[in-house]
Amino acid sequence: MSDSLSFNKARWDLPDVDLHLIEQIVRQNDIPEVAARMLAGRGIALADIPAFLNPTLKDNLPNPFDMADMEAMAEFFVSAIGAGKNFAIFGDFDVDGATSSALLYRFLKHCGVDAPIYIPGRLTEGYGPNVTALQSLKDDGADVLFLLDCGTTAFDTVAEGSAMGLDIIILDHHEAEDRLADAKFVINPKRKDDDAGLDVLAAVGVTFMAAISINNKLRAAGFYTDKGIKEPPLMQWMDIVALGTVCDMVPLLGVNRLFVRRGFEVMQNTQNIGLKELIAVSKITPPYSPYHVGFILGPRINAGSRVHKSDLGARLLSSDSVSEANDIAWTLNDCNDKRKAIQVEMEREAIAQVEAKGLDQYPLIFVASETFHQGLSGLVAGRLKEKYGKPAVAVALIDEDGLHEGRGSGRSVPGIHIAQAFIDARNEGLIAKGGGHAMAGGFSVSADGLDAFRAFLYAHIEKQAQSNDPNVITRLDGVVTVRGATPDFVHVLNNSIGPFGQEYPEPLFLFQNVRINKADVVGDSHIRVMFSDWEGGTWMKAMAFRSVDTPLGDALLKQQGAAFDLVGTLKIDNWTGVDKAEMHIKDGAFSH
Known about the structure:
Blueprint: E1 10-13, H1 19-29, H2 33-41, H3 49-53, H4 57-60, H5 70-82, E2 87-91, H6 95-110, E3 117-118, H7 131-139, E4 144-148, H8 155-163, E5 167-171, E6 185-187, H9 203-220, H10 223-227, H11 238-247, H12 255-267, H13 273-282, H14 290-306, H15 312-318, H16 322-357, E7 365-369, H17 377-388, E8 392-400, E9 403-411, H18 418-427, E10 433-436, E11 440-446, H19 450-466, E12 472-475, E13 478-480, H20 487-497, E14 509-522, E15 526-533, E16 540-544, H21 551-558, E17 563-573, E18 580-590
Parallel strand pairs: 1-12, 2-3, 2-4, 4-5, 5-6, 7-8, 13-14, 16-18
Antiparallel strand pairs: 8-9, 9-11, 10-11, 14-15, 14-17, 15-16, 17-18
Helix pairs in contact: 1-2, 5-9, 6-9, 6-11, 6-15, 9-11, 11-12, 11-14, 13-15, 13-16, 14-16, 15-16, 16-17, 18-19
């Protein structure tokens, strides 16, 4: 590929692929050449391709008992349920927490246990367990408490909960330290002593593996026979496992690919009343894809926690009442509309800060404001990351009831582990809370400590960046023409080698030497493009989202008629009832 930079200051790379290997993949797996070329280009080994294309629970589900303390936890559960212990669930307020809570709630309910779900207020209690909530659950009779999608580094709170007499079981996937919280069990594939190799799991995946383990031990103990009940329909609940996995942006590889592939098969005809109602309210139709989950359903489930209704997502996915689920689904839809309006204003203020102060010249974009809504800081950080191509942090400054602190979220780019920066800052005493994943995390910091924390982040991110290749390399999966990018072509990709997600992204294709026939602005920030191969012929629709006032957007709008190379993903547009191929433009350059 050319050594010149694209509009997004990236270099494009199309890997050389062994033609003999492509022929072998096609012959052995009966898939189209374009799909075989993509798998070979992404380094999927020939022997691994059958399981990659069609993973099954029978052949490809890892042994959950390989996870540290899983077997002991399952045996403890059997003794606890046999002794008539009372259970409770404390789950995080995001989609991963909601799906984890709903999954465990349904499992326990099937076993005859009615366990209350407690979801902390995102805006009032923040991330993770707190002593007040744990005391409340204890006072209401809980003996055994599950902490889902949180708790791994909540050392003080978990210690106090254990001192209350709670048997605390943590099912989590966040970064772990050398020491573990003082819980009865900590099931987390990121534990330093866990060598099961399942650290790609979301919390809902960890919860599903725990449910499989507990089910195994209950069966062996004769629990279901004694109770005269069938075993829990674990496979029927894989739709919410897929939902949480996709929305938490964990790598869509290995066991996660299995969960999502099988889970989406269940989702096409879901029996989950809440999910059915949310799908209806969202006005989407099958076949459902990670796009529907990540950009339509997930944001609605998340929206409740962003506007003081944190428990709605878990309640929705746990409900077996059509009327209740319908009410919650519409409420979440309204919450999402409110969230969008607030987010737009926050993004405008954040970008204005960056431009006025030159904040994009630092290793990390860092914005803070008293007007920011703390529930939306992560979304705004994500927008800044997209716009400037750097890690970004957005902080809502709180000044109420004697509390003076900043509550923020960060979003990162490949090669920069933002949660590690937060964890290190916490260990240095610069912030009160901090953690998350490589690509996303959150924290709270005292107002007085904001400047020191910002300086620490700049230095930490700069050090990380210096250890990596500073050039942005965009890996391409192939070159196509407008004439060749048909709906059938897109369907072949989706059906043969999908689903796509984190660390297994949608194929990126290069359209070389195309003519921009028309470009206009849609909404406040999107650009709609009609383009064709240079010699003419069929026009293809494309969208460049959030590209107004960017180098890419300026070129598309101002250089119509010029020859472009465009890079992007291919989608199916079924708006008129007829399938058409559509491109989502990610980058571009002038043709040479």
